[in-house]
């Protein structure tokens, strides 16, 4: 079970975007995540009229290492670690390590 999933609110722990929050847009197979409006870079893009892409300098989100982000815990207002526990009915759920609250319902 993945500890960080698409749609989770995360906070960046290190780097130039330290402290910024955003939702996970994509989780890559190599252990990286793309977070909305975090780790933005300028990309020089050539126009492609066949696809309808306009050329110019665009802002693009680049992936971050999954170890550089932590899930945002709204009750403690901090980034938190996540664990996985199995309920009595066999369902696996994620929970916050600091206060034991369940993340999945």
Overview of this structure, please?
It is a single chain. The protein is mainly β and 105 residues long. The protein has a domain of 62 residues: SH3 type barrels (Roll), CATH 2.30.30. Helices cover 0% and strands 45% of the residues. The chain is built from no helices and ten strands. The strands form three sheets. Strands 6-3-2-1-7-8 form a six-stranded antiparallel sheet, with no helix packed on it. Strands 4-5 form a two-stranded antiparallel ribbon.
First-last Cα distance:
15 Å
The number of E-state strands comes to 10
Gross CATH architecture of the domain at 9-46 and 54-77: Roll
Name the helix and strand elements from N-terminus to C-terminus, one letter apiece.
EEEEEEEEEE
* CATH topology type of the domain at 9-46 and 54-77: SH3 type barrels
Strand order of the largest sheet: 6-3-2-1-7-8
């Amino acid at each position: 079970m993945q500890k960080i999933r698409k749609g989770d609110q995360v906070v960046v722990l290190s780097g130039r975007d330290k402290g910024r929050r955003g939702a996970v847009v994509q989780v890559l197979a190599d252990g990286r995540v793309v977070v909305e409006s975090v780790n933005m870079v300028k990309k020089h893009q050539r126009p492609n009229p066949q696809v309808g892409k306009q050329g110019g300098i665009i802002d693009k989100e680049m992936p971050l290492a999954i170890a550089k982000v932590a899930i945002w815990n709204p009750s403690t207002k901090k980034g938190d670690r996540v664990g996985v526990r199995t309920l009595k009915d066999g369902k696996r759920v994620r929970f916050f390590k600091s206060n034991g609250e369940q993340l999945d319902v």
